[in-house]
Every structure is written in structure tokens, then in C-alpha cells.
Design goal:
By secondary structure, the chain is α/β, with parallel strands linked by helices. It has 17 helices and 17 strands. The structure holds flavin-adenine dinucleotide (FAD) and iron/sulfur cluster (2 copies). One iron/sulfur cluster binds next to helix 8 and helix 12.
Length: about 425
Amino acid sequence: MNNRQTPAERLYAIVEQGLCIGCGLCQSVAGKDAVRVTKTVSGYLHPVVEGELEHATVDRIYQVCPGTRIEGLPSELIEADTRHDNVWGPWRRIVRAWAGDPAVRFEGSTGGVLTALANYLLVSKRVEFILQVKTSASEPSFGDATLSFTEADVFEAAGSRYGPAAPLTDIDAALGRDQPFAFIAKPCDVSALRNYASQDERVDRLVRYMLVMVCGGYGTPQGTIEFYRRVGIDPRQVTGLRYRGRGCPGPTRVETGDRAQEFHYIDYWGEDETTWSLPFRCKICPDGIGEAADIAAADTWIGGGPNRVDSVDDPGTNALIARTRAGEELIAAAAEAGALTLEYDIVPDIMSVYQPHQVNKKYAAWARHQGLHDAGRIVPHTERLRIEELAQDLPDETNEFQREGTRKRVEIGKASEPRPTACKP
Ligand SMILES: Cc1cc2nc3c(=O)[nH]c(=O)nc-3n(C[C@H](O)[C@H](O)[C@H](O)COP(=O)(O)OP(=O)(O)OC[C@H]3O[C@@H](n4cnc5c(N)ncnc54)[C@H](O)[C@@H]3O)c2cc1C
Ligand code: SF4
Ligand code: SF4
């Protein structure tokens, strides 16, 4: 820490150094009178200091923020018979699956398994509610945190939202209900909640299941605007956006008032990984595969993306990675109840065929973090993610290329965000 920095400057450093994913947790830690995670002029959800902020509070934020600390599965959840893959982490079972209910399979992002598991958790009364993300009421491209108490609520939240979403802005209210619940979110959101368990004992007591999607990164606000422009839509006219779902991947549907236009997933993301417009934090992500979750759900496209022909009538098949005993048991129980249809078991090497971009990123993460160090930036603290070990498998030139690439990125300003300023309401 730079001793001359004020508490606000220290918090803003996380944003300015491109490490904030807008999870919302710092608002919960500091209290919303002090810090509000809100849409800023950069288009992202970021924290804005609104009241008095102490250094001690910022110290607590640095301990839990997924921009500064990312850990793998807590050691106590790793059993003697849990298997390990150096890329894919701890796992007990990996299985191809889809939602047992065809309507859920159709509506879901891939095969609807996260929605199906959430429904099963509610119906079987294992939890009282689900903390998850649904389409924002005010910003068509964003997600809003929501508590789902019924199957209808969960159904409404189905589908991937690639824009900013802050599921943890009000975690205190969810924990304050003193009821068991499940959390469904991105891997970095789950990292944040696992970190927060060290500051709030209710997390381990009440959050019975943590489920994630495997995540290659979310779409930048600028990338979404560029997509609208590419397809001839005025961004200011957009009233609704559904990224995918209703098939796999299903159409990207943009509403402008009474008019709806549908595009392909590839129109939004581009033809391959090199064209994805991602926030900097996603580029250096050491855990897009949800190592801290009970279950991670992924797509099963060979090579990491759909093609325009096969995707027309693809009903959607997920790969489910159960990492904990609780996750493994949940998959079996949901299948037994008909909530999930299991196809066949697979192994980590098959995941690498479905997710080459995750493999690349996992191998590159350590060198990229070293590049941050070289540039004098905050280096996220990582544990149990094996990134240094993986980097040692790469040729020195490759690590040097990644390291220097990141240092250069910082130098030319491609890893920086402006000081966050809230958008006017
Ligand atoms: C930003 C992002 C990047 C992704 N990258 C990859 C990838 O690289 N590889 C891959 O295999 N799959 C990726 N996916 C996951 C994939 O799109 C599916 O979400 C996943 O396969 C689960 O499918 P499903 O049919 O079970 O989901 P559904 O049953 O439709 O459930 C989706 C769940 O995700 C929650 N959710 C949606 N958007 C968000 C969000 N932005 N933040 C927090 N929670 C959200 C919803 O609340 C819902 O509970 C990504 C998803 C997202 C949101
Ligand atoms: S990543 Fe989350 S906790 Fe960290 S600064 Fe951003 S909103 Fe706050
Ligand atoms: S790539 Fe990593 S940091 Fe980015 S949204 Fe996904 S899990 Fe979070």
C-alpha cells in the first residue's frame, strides 16, 4: 500500500488498475452510505465512494475483493478421494447433462442445468431461495441481483447475461434472512463470497450451494455498443437485450420499442477468441473455471464456440463439473428426481476440447500476473489455483511473451480505467 493514498484512492486503485469486475461486495463490506456500486460513466458497474471510508474498511475490502484475492476450493471441501487435474482443478464427477424439463432446457443458456438445479433445490426444500442474477429492469445489457423463491422466479432468471452484473451488493440482506440459500453466479463472484466467509460466519452456515458457469469473460459496455452499431441499431433506442438461450446458443435478441431483431451469438462475440472484447480483469483471470464452486456448468461446443450451421437446432448440452461432495450428491439427487438428464461421464481432457480458451488462459495467468508486478501494479493474491506450476510447463519464451505483453498493456494504458464517477440518475 502507498501510505500517502487516502482510503478512497486505495479503493479506486482496484478499479483504475482494471481489476474490478463490479461484483458489488465492497458495498456490502463498507455499507452503502460509504460505498455504492453503480453504473459509472465508463459504462461499467464500479464502486463510488459516497461517505466516510476508513483505511481499516479498505483493508477488509482488499481481503475479499475478487480483483485482489482469488482462491481455489477451500481445503476443507477437498476430500481424500477428490480427483485433481492441473488445468481443471479438483473434481469428483464431470458429466454431460441437460435439464429434464424440455421448457427449461430450451429457455436456458445452454441446456438449462443451472436453472434445473436451482428449481430442484427449491422444490426439494434444500434451500429457501436462490441469490442469482436476472435481466436488469433499467439497463437492458446488465444483470440485476435477485432473490428467487419460486420456480417462476428462477425461470425468469434463466439465460446468460454478458453485461455487467453485481450479485453481491446486498449480500448482508440475503444473509440477514437467516435461511439456507444457494448462490449462482460467475466464478469471480463465488471467489468473492468464499473470501467473505472469512469475515462473516453466516456465509458457511447459510450458503448451502455455490454454483457457477464456466466463464470466459463478460462483454465490455463498449463492445456491446459496437455490436449494436455493427448490426445497424442505434444503442440509444435499445429497450431489451437477450444474449442467448431459447436454443443453444439461441438468438441474440435486441428490442427497440415494438421491434425485435434477432442475431447470432457469433454476431455479438465475433468469429473467435481473438475478437472478444473483454475487461482487463478477465484477460488475467486465474479462475474462469469456477474452482471454488460446488458445481461449474459449461458449454460443450468442440473448440470453444458454436458454428452458424450446427447451432440452428441444437437443444443444448452442458458439461457439469462437481467439485465437492455436496455438488456430486446434488447432481445425483436432481437426476434421480428427473430434474436433470445425465448423458455420459467425461474427463478433464474432454473439457479442454470444449474449452481451449480456458486452458490457454489458465496457462497464461501466472506470467500475466508477473507482468503486472513488473509494471508496479497490484498483483492479485492467488491460492490453490496452480498457476505458477502450470506456467512452468510452458517454454520460457511463451511466459516471457505473456509477461512482457501484460507489462506493455499497462504501459500503453490498455489495463487502466478512469476514476469511477457515477452516472447521473
Ligand atoms: C459472462 C459469461 C461468460 C461465459 N463464458 C463461458 C465460457 O467461456 N465457457 C462456457 O462453457 N460457458 C460460458 N458461459 C456459460 C454459459 O453461457 C452457460 O451459462 C452455462 O453453460 C450454464 O448454462 P445453463 O443452460 O445451465 O444456464 P441457465 O440455466 O440459463 O442458467 C444461467 C444462470 O446464470 C446466471 N447468470 C447469467 N448471467 C449471469 C451473470 N452475468 N452474472 C452472474 N450470474 C449470471 C443466471 O442467474 C442463471 O442462474 C458464460 C456465461 C457468462 C454469463
Ligand atoms: S471487484 Fe467487487 S469488491 Fe472489488 S472493487 Fe469491484 S465491486 Fe468492489
Ligand atoms: S473471466 Fe474471470 S474475472 Fe472475468 S467475469 Fe469470468 S470469472 Fe469473472
